[in-house]
Amino acid sequence: MVCLSVERIFPSAPNTTSVRSLLNRSDFVSCILPPSPPANLLFELGIAIGLNKPLLLFADDPRHVPFDLASLRALNSDLISSEALDTFLDAFLRTIAPSPAKRRSPPNRKSSPPDFWQKITAEVSRIPSLPSRSAGSELEALIKQAFKHAGFDLTSSPGPDFGADFALFSPALNRAFGLPILVEVKNNSESALQQSEVDKLSELLREKRGGAGLIVTYKDHEKQLPLGLQQPIVIIAASELLRWLEVGSFADELVSTIDMFWAREK
Question: N or C terminus: fewer CB in 10 A for the chain?
Fold first, then answer.
């Protein structure tokens, strides 16, 4: 189980879309109510209630909570430091189901010819043997083909220097992020991915053009020099991306990786 804290993830004022996205991907929401809860805490609880998330509330005096929360059960905060907490949490967790964003749907094998993913994986592996002037565009075309085959909707960028090659949509991604995923495909088989290329995508995310970024490379980024990531951007090798798409886990893997980015950076 991964526990995330809103105030640690968003040390400065977060936007509503980001908070809603995080809460929407949570299996439940826990809160310790102070005697006079701040407005932002009540606002976040309101979002959680609107999303029908199970609530685990604690208060110094459960009999005196804000009027709007009086109908909800709150436990005495003394339980947190008692030996009974583990037993109670175990019982509570047995009553909740994973959030929709974490339920994996089995891949639709009927719509995928058995050799499709083998064929496209083989074509991607040929990228280093292609002329450098065409290798980048060929890799981008293959990645687009893979996303479309896996059932995702794509919208091409408005220009070659936009900072992202295309935007990615699906019902699961829309629920999780509220904005499209911006995808940039870079052939790093000859030269490493540059910080300036990452910064272009980061700027688009700061401008709220997308909910998160995805940079697809030929080689695994971990074998290159580390890059500074100031926005939720996932860098992934094409071979790993194809594996996610083939087994139908792309949306789950992306959400999980970005959750870890937020927890690590904040």
Answer: N
